[in-house]
Recover the amino acids of this structure.
């Protein structure tokens, strides 16, 4: 998709002001004797400031007019914006990158405009934005799409070409309903639910260092997971991610896997592995902190897409590379079939995290292919059954549940299972042996990591 315009929330998105708003609002309620001010803050957070104070007056503070409450809160908020509040780390650099790319921006907030302007002026960023739009009056709260439509009118952009940057799930939810794409900046203060935020946005990040114009340009609406292969005949994308483990896969294995892939992604030091194998990537993705400078220069000279990230980021290069594979599958209208290599050697902590990444991508029928073993993550939403060949007889085989509620069956192995419920990370399925041609393992529920060791 094209990234042509941006809409930013202010509090908790541009400036780190949510603790201030919490403290000032709860303080207001406490000064006026409201019982359980924390609960009242939560129930009123989505309201525009004037409506919030009217709500307080009508329900909890009859002794002060709504306008008196507004004036009291605004005075304290303005002082805090001017002297205490700071921008979120990396925000200014991201705004600079958008301005350099010619992407117009507006602010859309539940805070009243005069207070917003104090906040933006205090940080020296008012000039980045075409306009500042506040909810209130005819523009209802962010639980409704009004403010997003008003921002689109200012920007002159289509919803599908516009990104909204928010920290509140009620804001990203209404923006998505209006057809916009959304980034949720997860609060560092522990005041939001991670799962709720992730479910309500297209991309969840823990900070601006995880964002770039290239990443948002690369985004595509994913093909629905759990759709059977028969619904997408002939539209499987075989994507290979070559990662950057300290002990890389052999050039022979990397070259072989690349020759069978439709789309090859170099994840940081995966560029070195691909360069040694003489295999050209389609995408270079990562922060270039572990790849050699020669491999980075080579990869960036041959790829069609370069998605760079800062070193200081929350997400791993592998996670970002898997996202790239998903977006390419979406652009092609294809079901993703994911293979990862050069990901698990030399670091047992990395190896465990890699299995976690593959478990999260179980709908993409993921395969981890290394020189000493292969690992498939089975799931009813992706590949449910792994059928082994005659050449696998005698090889060691282990099956480990990597999700709660995993149920598995094994046939043609020395010790078989029949719809057995396996405990998370339990050892019941470890160190089995392939006993017969046509052996198979099936995951009926949950997710199952299956390891086939080479002789």
């Amino acid at each position: 998709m094209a990234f042509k315009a941006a809409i930013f929330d202010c509090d908790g998105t541009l400036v780190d002001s949510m603790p201030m708003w919490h403290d000032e609002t709860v303080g207001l309620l406490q000064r006026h004797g409201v019982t359980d001010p924390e609960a009242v803050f939560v129930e009123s957070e989505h309201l525009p400031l004037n409506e919030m104070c009217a709500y307080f007056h009508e329900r909890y503070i009859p002794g002060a007019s709504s306008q008196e409450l507004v004036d009291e809160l605004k005075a304290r908020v303005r002082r805090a914006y001017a002297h205490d509040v700071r921008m979120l780390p990396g925000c200014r650099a991201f705004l600079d990158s958008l301005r350099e790319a010619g992407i117009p921006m507006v602010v859309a907030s539940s805070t009243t405009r005069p207070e917003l302007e104090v906040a933006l002026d205090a940080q020296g960023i008012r000039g980045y934005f075409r306009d500042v739009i506040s909810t209130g009056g005819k523009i209802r709260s962010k639980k409704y799409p009004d403010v997003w439509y008003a921002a689109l009118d200012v920007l002159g952009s289509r919803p599908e070409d516009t990104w909204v940057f928010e920290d509140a799930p009620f804001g990203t939810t209404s923006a998505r309903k209006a057809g916009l794409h959304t980034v949720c900046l997860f609060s560092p203060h522990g005041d939001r639910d991670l799962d709720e935020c992730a479910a309500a946005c297209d991309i969840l990040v823990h900070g601006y260092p995880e964002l770039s114009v290239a990443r948002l340009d690369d985004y595509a609406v994913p093909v629905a997971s759990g759709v059977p292969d028969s619904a997408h005949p002939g539209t499987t994308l075989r994507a290979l991610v070559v990662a950057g483990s300290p002990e890389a896969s052999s050039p022979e294995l990397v070259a072989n896997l690349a020759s069978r892939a439709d789309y090859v992604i170099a994840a940081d030091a995966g560029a070195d592995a691909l360069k040694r194998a003489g295999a050209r990537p389609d995408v270079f993705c990562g922060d270039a902190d572990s790849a050699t400078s020669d491999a980075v220069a080579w990869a960036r000279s041959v790829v069609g897409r370069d998605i760079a990230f800062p070193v200081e980021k929350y997400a791993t290069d592998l996670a970002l590379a898997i996202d790239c594979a998903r977006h390419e599958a979406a652009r092609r209208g294809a079901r993703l079939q994911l293979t990862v290599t050069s990901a698990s050697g030399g670091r047992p902590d990395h190896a465990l995290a890699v299995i976690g990444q593959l478990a999260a991508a179980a709908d993409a029928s993921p395969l981890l292919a290394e020189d000493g073993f292969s690992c498939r993550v089975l799931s009813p939403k992706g590949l449910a059954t792994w059928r082994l060949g005659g050449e696998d007889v005698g090889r060691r085989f282990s099956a480990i549940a990597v999700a709660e509620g995993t149920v598995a069956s094994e046939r043609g192995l020395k010790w078989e299972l029949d719809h057995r419920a396996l405990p998370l990370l339990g050892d019941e399925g470890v160190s089995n042996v392939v006993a017969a041609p046509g052996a198979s393992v099936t995951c009926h529920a949950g997710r199952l990591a299956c390891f086939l060791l080479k002789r």
Remarks:
- The domain at 5-12+86-218 is CATH 3.40.50.1000 (Rossmann fold).
- The chain is about 35% helix and 20% strand.
- The chain has three domains: 5-12+86-218, 18-83, 229-453.
